[in-house]
Amino acid sequence: MLSEFTWSGKERSRVKAIENDLALVSTASACQLMISMGWRNTFMLGLHPLQQLGLGNRIVGRARTCQYLMRRGPETGHDPVARRNSAEIQLIESIESGDIFCVDALGVPTAGIIGDILAARLKSRGVAAAVINGAVRDSPYIAEVGLPVFAASIHPAHSGRDLEAVDFDQPINMVGVYVHSGDILLADDEGVIAMPLDFAEQIASIGPSKERLEMWIRGKIIAGGSAHDYYPPTSEKAAEYEQETGQRASH
Question: What is this structure's pTM?
Answer without folding.
Answer: 0.93
